[in-house]
Design brief:
two-stranded antiparallel sheet, 2 strands, transmembrane helix
Length: 458
């Protein structure tokens, strides 16, 4: 694996930040107005969010004794928290939210060892199907951005779609025709070109940069001393456990692409880091974090697996949280440009998950039923979550989440029809190896190459 220069490390880390930035700031932008925060408080909420993302990322990637998955896993606020945080915030204010986030993080950290024991119930057919649901679920996010961003007055404008298509084509050309480092940063390069074209078209908003201050001092409990309500804590604890279930599949994905066998203890360390991260996040006025699927797609796409790259991204996020003026630069990337770049990244999750599922015997009736019902239920619920709107709020939060419901069905059906396997679970959820590596393997093992497409690799 290539030793990256400081400049390359910085660019690769910044690429990760650009990929997750829109999602990272979306949660506070949605939650803030909904629970009555002022514009100034929302700006602070975004800064605290970025700071917490950076801190939690470093905990997860660097790790320590008994904590941290130590894989290139970038952490960010999960979209799952939006509805419950708004519900809690309207009743118990932002301080009630922070209290619930902190306690739920403590609970996850304490039970991480037991959640990790779920690993044997996630063989390739289950984990691959979960990632397939996640990948399909993320595609509408990319398309909404491509059309101009949710709530945009120009949503669906042909200019937006043209800009997204331009960014997508730029990525395809750069990724296909270039080699080495430029190939690895093809997503970032495409976004730079897309933003330049957007500037020429008058579609770049520089107000976020011009109005941002130069320094923001971290302020624990900025919104006040946390309050602790039992119903709020129960709600956020359920949400945190849901996030943990999703994270297991993501850990398996990263383990495969990094050529590392993920065991129960590894999962427990990763989930423990998420729990501790939520506790810290609550102190620094943010929400529950999870391993961001978008960035896993980027790792699959670029094949850059060095932890140092994500550590650099974590440092950049901390900087963004401390220096809003720097963060303002990333707000200049138009939503259509982000959407055009998201499509291939999310698509990589789909492609890789299919390769993982293919490891199972798909002629076996039980496996066909597992995939059909698990993926079918997950996507059906994802498409119409309001079908459970008349259920109690706690039930609605769980039953209306397509990824969670799909995961439940997959795990239960697999346990009933195939039983619990005691094998080691190294999941083959990865992009095809680079052509140069295939040629080397062919020389040594005389394998067939004709049906295996090349992908990016440093």
């Amino acid at each position: 694996m290539e030793n990256l220069s400081k400049l390359k490390m910085l660019m690769l880390g910044f690429q990760h930040v650009c990929v997750m930035y829109g999602g990272a700031v979306a949660v506070p932008l949605i939650v803030g107005p909904a629970i009555g925060l002022t514009q100034e408080q929302i700006v602070m909420l975004i800064s605290f969010d970025l700071l917490a993302c950076g801190i939690v990322t470093l905990i997860q990637v660097i790790g320590g004794k008994g904590i941290g998955i130590q894989l290139p896993a970038l952490m960010a606020v999960s979209f799952i928290v939006v509805e419950p945080v708004i519900a809690i915030g309207k009743v118990h204010s932002i301080t009630g939210v922070m209290g619930a986030v902190m306690v739920s993080g403590l609970i996850v950290a304490l039970v991480a060892k037991y959640i990790g024991k779920m690993v044997p119930y996630f063989p390739p057919i289950v984990a691959g199907s979960v990632i397939l649901i996640i990948g399909v679920s993320l595609m509408p996010v990319a398309m909404r951005n491509a059309a101009g961003g949710a709530g945009s007055p120009t949503f669906g404008d042909p200019k937006n779609l043209f800009l997204a298509a331009f960014t997508l084509m730029a990525f395809i050309l750069i990724n296909t025709l270039s080699k080495g480092f430029l190939k690895a940063v093809s997503v970032l390069a495409a976004m730079v070109l897309g933003t330049l074209l957007a500037g020429i078209m008058g579609m770049v908003d520089t107000s976020g940069f011009s109005q941002a201050s130069w320094f923001n001092m971290p302020a624990p409990f900025y919104f006040g001393i946390p309050t602790f309500d039992v119903s709020a804590i129960i709600t956020m604890s359920i949400i945190s456990l849901i996030i943990a279930v999703e994270s297991i599949g993501v850990f398996m994905t990263l383990g495969e692409v990094c050529d590392r066998d993920i065991k129960e203890d590894d999962v427990a360390k990763g989930l423990r880091a998420e729990g501790v991260g939520s506790m810290i996040s609550g102190v620094f006025n943010s929400f529950s974090h999870s391993t961001f699927s978008q960035n896993v797609g980027l790792v699959l796409l670029t094949r850059v697996t060095q932890r140092s790259v994500v550590i650099t991204a974590g440092g950049i996020l901390i900087l963004l949280g401390l220096v809003p003026k720097v963060a303002g630069l990333t707000t200049m990337i138009p939503a259509p440009v982000l959407g055009g770049a998201m499509i291939p990244m999310f698509g990589m999750l789909l492609s890789a998950s299919l390769g993982m599922i293919a490891k199972a015997d798909l002629k076996k009736p039980s496996n066909q039923i597992i995939i059909a019902l698990g993926v079918g239920v997950g996507l059906a619920v994802k498409g119409v979550p309001e079908a459970f709107a008349k259920f109690p709020e706690t039930v609605h939060l769980i039953a209306g989440n397509g990824v969670v419901m799909g995961t439940f069905v997959l795990v239960i059906l697999n346990a009933i029809l195939n039983g619990r396997s005691n094998k080691s679970y190294q999941h083959t959820l990865s992009a095809p190896p680079a052509q140069e590596n295939l040629e080397l393997a062919a020389a040594k093992e005389e394998i067939e190459l004709t049906d295996v497409p090349p992908t990016a690799k440093i």
